[in-house]
Amino acid sequence: MKAAVYTKYGSPEVIQIIDVEIPSPKPNEILVKIKASSVTRADTMMRQGIPKFGRLFLGLFKPKNTTLGTGFSGVVEAVGSQITKFKVGDEVFGEKLFCNGCNADYICIAENVVLDIKPNIISHEEAAPVCDGFLTSYNFLKDIADLKPGQHILINGASGSLGSAAVQLSKVIGAKVTAVCSTKNIDFVKSIGADKVIDYKKTPIAKINEKYNVIYDSVGTLSYKESKKLLSSNGVFMTPVLSGQILYQMLFNPKKVKFAATGIKKTEELKQLFLDLVGLYKQGKLQTHIDKKYSLPDIKHAHHYLETGRKVGNIVVVNP
Ligand SMILES: NC(=O)c1ccc[n+]([C@@H]2O[C@H](COP(=O)([O-])OP(=O)(O)OC[C@H]3O[C@@H](n4cnc5c(N)ncnc54)[C@H](OP(=O)(O)O)[C@@H]3O)[C@@H](O)[C@H]2O)c1
Fold first, then answer.
1. Distance separating the N- and C-terminal Cα atoms of the chain
2. What is the rounded distance in angstroms from the CA atom of residue 235 to the CA atom of residue 213?
3. How many Å apart are CA 235 and CA 272, to the nearest integer?
4. List of residues 6+ apart from 122 with CB closer than 8 A
5. How high is the pLDDT of residue 296?
6. What are the residues facing 198 on neighbouring strands?
7. For the CA of 156, the nearest atom of ligand 1
8. Tens of pLDDT along 99-128?
9. Predicted confidence (pLDDT) at residue 168 exceeds the cutoff of 80
């Protein structure tokens, strides 16, 4: 089978497509033939080995894990002897955290992780990126902000994978959404449910004259210092993007400023959030927006495009 790998940190050009043996499932695993897999900002960071302190875990001089791809959707091809929940032919989706080889033709994955039957109203392409934007933003909205019906949330970067998921999830929760994006993405952001849209090219944050219960800076381009005047008295500023500025502000304002790495949450907690999302997809309440699709041999181009910072929603690798 084909698999995308990288044996040194660097630009998208370090990615190679190689031939490897199809893996055999252990007793507690299923073998999945991958139909679509996600390509995400987190994947590009693993490939580059950034932030550099992350190399303490990822490998000091070269990556310990050489495979790419975290989210997937596909069809069960074989099951281990202890598998009870899935059978050959089931359509399944989920994630193998930390780029554990989903940009490939096949993966083996344990039954009890972030994995479930794919709702039949969504395609493999729509299912593969769910664990990036939707799972991350759901963790922020539900477990970190505890967003409530009627509250007002400002979502910065509303056209990205995390931002477009946050707009939809906030509406499902019953919050009022003000979304921030650029001129070209206003129609898209309105189409997914934003109540109000602010064009960041025309209205800088300093000119906004409203109060929010939650500010979710999904792309990490706002500063807490500038944003805090927009927070209501118990308001929370949260971002999935780690920076020195955020760490500093968290130290002095731990109740107001929040960062979390969703991938290091306990598997059972992540799985519960994921199962909630599966339920919402089954009810037709969420939509994955796909910006571009690539074939596995073209995955370098997907990484180059990601690094422009301009993608709208998600990008996926689609296998024939
Ligand atoms: N902590 C975690 O657990 C976790 C998990 C997953 C991802 N992340 C991080 O989350 C971040 C967001 O990822 P993503 O995939 O959603 O999006 P992304 O690819 O980082 O951002 C793309 C979108 O951001 C918009 N954008 C760029 N600059 C902007 C600005 N100044 N103001 C408002 N919008 C702007 C772009 O629209 P325009 O072209 O219109 O500007 C584009 O649609 C990444 O840094 C990723 O590493 C963290």
1. 13
2. 4
3. 26
4. 281, 288
5. 98
6. 180
7. 33
8. 789 999 999 999 999 999 999 999 999 999
9. yes
Q: Is the CB of 103 under 6 A from ligand 1?
A: no
Q: Is 139 in the pocket of ligand 1 (CB under 6 A)?
A: no
- Is pLDDT at 40 greater than 90 in this prediction? yes
Atom 46 of ligand 1: nearest residue by CA position: 41
Cα 305 to ligand 1 centre (Å): 13
pLDDT of residue 237 exceeding 90, the answer is yes
Ligand 1 centroid from CA 306, angstroms: 10
Give the Å distance between the CA of 96 and the centre of ligand 1. 21
| Mean pLDDT on 296-317 | 98
Question: What are the structural domains of the chain?
Answer: 2-130+288-318 (3.90.180.10), 133-263 (3.40.50.720)
Query: What local confidence, expressed as pLDDT, does residue 97 receive?
Result: 87
Q: What is the mean pLDDT of residues 12-41?
A: 98
Cα(8) to ligand 1 centroid in Å equals 25
Predicted pLDDT at 111: 95
For ligand 1, atom 48, name the residue with the nearest CA: 240
Q: Which atom of ligand 1 is nearest to the CA of 161?
A: 16
What angle in degrees, to the nearest 10, is found between the helix axes of 299-306 and 41-48? 100
